[in-house]
Amino acid sequence: MKSPLALLRRLPPFAWMLALFFCCGVVACKSLPDVDPQMPAKATPTIETTKGTLPPKKASALVARRWANASSNLKALATLEEQATGVPLIAGNKVKLLFDGPATMREMMAAARVATSSINLETYIFDSDKVGNEFADLLIDKQRQGVAVNVMVDAVGAIGTPAAFFDRMRQAGIRVLIFNPVNPAKAHGNWELNNRNHRKLMVVDGKVAFTGGINISSTYANSSLFRSRHKPDQVDGDKVGWRDTHVKIEGPAVAPLQWSFINLWVRQEGGELPPAEYFPTLTPVGDKIIRVLASDPDRASDIYKALVVAINEAKRSIHITCAYFVPDQQIVDSLTSAARRGVDVKLVLPGVSDHSLIRYAGQAFYDQLLAGGVRIFELQIAVLHAKTAVIDGGWSTIGSANIDRRSFIHNYELNVVVMDPAFGASMESAFNEDLRDSKEVTLERWQHRPWSDRIKEWVARLGEYWI
Known about the structure:
Shape: globular
CATH superfamily of the largest domain: Endonuclease Chain A
Number of domains: 2
Number of strands: 20
Distance between the termini: 11 Å
CATH architecture of the largest domain: 2-Layer Sandwich
Structural class: alpha/beta
Strand content: 15-25%
Helix content: 25-40%
Largest sheet: 18 strands, mixed
């Protein structure tokens, strides 16, 4: 589930097409920004610390120490990325990579249980199922203990969740904001049906944050066979788990993540937040350098620009894992250009998908990518929902944004960029495990696919902007 149209997929075909034309009629098309591959770079990236912005000499010395083992020039990439996005780096963080829903849910619930001041939860989907109710019960319990609990859920993502589920939380004192209601009569300010809040974020006591691709739902908490010692010869498409990725962050980078939640709450006129220490004094707790990218429909996507810059600057490898991959031509050109200059470009894309229309739209680009030297692998053992990339083993991104126009133009999305070779090694390890459970799509085999699939790709490509 990723867009208003995705949630309409159970409708009869005629009704679905009416919904498509409705969306096309009420929203004008937007375009993605051109990213200049020849932009001049600053000498040193801007690095924020708990004591303020580091002077250039100290910033240069810090990155020299932290990135001494990088296989490429992370300093140059960091400055170019800052030029493109205007967002500084933040030093002194601890980052833990979380694989799949079960590990993430355990960590998030454990952090929530020890909250003493506040819990801010932002999610696209909050289902009224086993995991959703367990999470809701925990939040209600913390609210009754005096913790300020604030929940923001997208109206389309929660369209299948009964109102009574959220009413129960409200009755316990939790502030619940339904983001951008589907019913225009319930909207505050401008009604923007097509602009959805796709972010996934939980901040506890202003000190610990979780973000990535995982929603609050038993669907996402259903473990895939990723990292399992016992993998079946065949996978039942109706019973496979979901492959996703999240991160746990501690340190100064939690502050901008907290700010992204509060800023969006205020913009949605969610009402006064209860008093709490939302921005406690944060001290360095680790050595990870992070860039927090919170994009929205009102400005050109920083997440998109950061990705294009990183691809264009790649010297050795580009390894992307993406659930919904419907790239624009600039990303296709950047990937094929990298492959032609000798970069190892590999994509892990869905072999089992929850949305066939999006999958066919993405496959419409396979011919061009494969001919350009990009290697494509389709994950077989799980429904792929992760949105991650690791480039040259030192630049990594994890978040909610897919590689498609919806994420980059219409959604509120949240990604973090971690610039660190050791963290990159963990990302590479996970990518290689996914490769082992994937089948490669070769150009020769792809050119002999059935004509029925080609027609589906053509039809899906017509509506790629809206899905």
